[in-house]
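re: ur msg from earlier - yeah i can do the iron/sulfur cluster complex, just paste it... oh wait u already did. ok heres what im feeding in:
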Amino acid sequence: MTPLQENQSVCLCCAEGCGFYTLLEQGRAAGIEYMKEHPVNAGALCLKGNSVLETVHHPDRIYSPQARHADGTLHAVSWDEAISLIASRLKGAAAKHGPHALAFMASACCTNEENYLLQKFSRVLGTNNITCPALEEGAGFPAAALASMFGYAGMTNPLADLANAQCIIITGSHFLENHPVAARFVFEARMRGAVVICADHRVPPAPWFCDTFLHIRPGTQAALLEGMVIHLLESRLCNLRFIEERTAGFEAFSKAMQKQSLKQCEGITGVPAASIRAAAERYASSRASSLVQTADYAAYPAQTNAARLYAAHLSLLTGHLGRPGAGIFPLLTHGNEQGSYDMGVSPRMQFGQAEFKDQALSSRLTKLWRIKHLPSKEGIPLHDLPKAIKNRRIKAMYIVESDPCGELRAGAEFQNALKGLDFLVVQDRFLTATAKQADLILPAPCWAEKTGTYTSTERRVQWQSRIISPQKQILAAWQVICAVGKKIGLQKQFSYGNPEAILSEINKAAPAYAGITPSRVKKMDGIISPCPAIKHPGTPILYTEQFSTPDGRAHFAAPAYDRKEEKPTKKYPFRLTCGPVNASPSAAPTGDSPAAVPLTLEINPRDAKRILLQNLEEVKILTSSGSVKATAVITDSMPPGVVFIPYIAAAGKDGSLHHLDPRVQIPQLGVQTCLVKKSGGM
Ligand code: SF4
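and the outut:
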């Protein structure tokens, strides 16, 4: 019997970047083998990781390009025909209406090389209309808040460093269920004597994992952290030396914070002021403290952002940064979310986390890309796209491995709007809700059929080689972009022989990736960015000496946010929260329709009794903006008055529960109020 071949692989089902081996048998991915020597997961894989092979040979995969004829039917076309069609339609739209009539959508499932090339394509054509749903949905990229204070968006220390902390504060929801790798290092820290404090509106499935559990009201993470900041300032439990030597703006920040009160934070969170004080003191007094933040369900994205900023302030006030065990861990959700951010697939930001006004980067890119100038006007953000298409500002779009119709809360709006495009090309592994709208559908390779790099939540850049050949010829997005680029006369800009050649260009373009060369990154544990030079070992711990701001100091800035919340009423008596769960397809790149996953509603036994609800009974959830059906799961983990539904299914099949945050114009991901009634009516 031929022995099975082991192939080094990276799990992309979430952002933690676990490694494993794919076993090959006669060209098919036949199984997985645990990678015990991997620095992140040391051989372990969670439920999602153990099912990575499910999508590889999935019977619903699409394998050939298909074009829509005038009668609406789809017909298989050759790759040559498909490339010619894309080139003529994109070029035609840009020539007639200008480059801003084009829009591109990238994905956190794509490799860094694919995302780099897609944003380059967009910008060489002359527009910043490039988005990535993972970076713009909800309150946006979680680590971005850190950039405003520290000068760089990224988790400050590697996950394994959590084990070195003496005190760990975890805020957000579903930490244990959604972040098993990070949880492993928290357990390790606790075994070494660390104090673990967890704040959540749901009781964790294993509450014993923490020393103190703060049962906060849903979406009040910001108020809890704000209360801790207030107490540290009032009681002068600050690391004045660190503040003096490494930061700026402390006086103004302290003054601004005098207007806030701990009593108010107690009222908002429902956590006694004494417990908030005790948590703050624990955090401040330990030798090395860390803050872990998972997804939060605040009523408004601005509140989520405020929570992220207060976490940064706590670390600055106490000097818990730049050392082993002392850091901030905003845990990302999507496989290559950090890489997507670094590659600049954003309408508001350049490649390499740079602003549009960054002249040094602009001149480096124009030289490297052999173009005269880069577009400097911000592009259209994700949630303005439906309106821009309706207003005929956008005429043609190329969407790669994203399914705005099926996965975003504004899915119905996208569904309606995309019909108004003159040309839509969608490249994906499955016939998603968005692909069904396309004039041209291109198959996409799955992770095992791709080559390139991914950057995990801890900034670890890892290489994935193509390990199997798809059933038929499938061109990866980078190959499509190169072929289309050449067809429209951009040979100089889009001639790459392989992903290694693209990575070599990224090395020249982005200082943080300069030393992450193809030959260096292929080793099993990858390289942690920033890695500014060819011999640089990578930067596991950020800010050991200085911050990434122009003056090298971190900048205090009091977050301005509205503390208001939607309060339960007689009509809508429950607070409705939602979030990702371990089995959620949001993180599993399957392309399955969210509607295929049964929707559950978690409800407290007292509330269930009050409305005469039995476990597993069908219910209808009604909010001011829509309704969905679900199966009730009665559980003590929900506090009375609060109900929970999984994140993706919240878009609902028979209705929509989302509505827009009026100020930031992105879907409100957090707490709403609702009515729960038995499906048969009451
Ligand atoms: S889903 Fe995340 S935690 Fe689970 S195995 Fe994959 S990378 Fe690791």
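cool cool. The longest strand covers residues 626-634. ping me if u need the other ligands too
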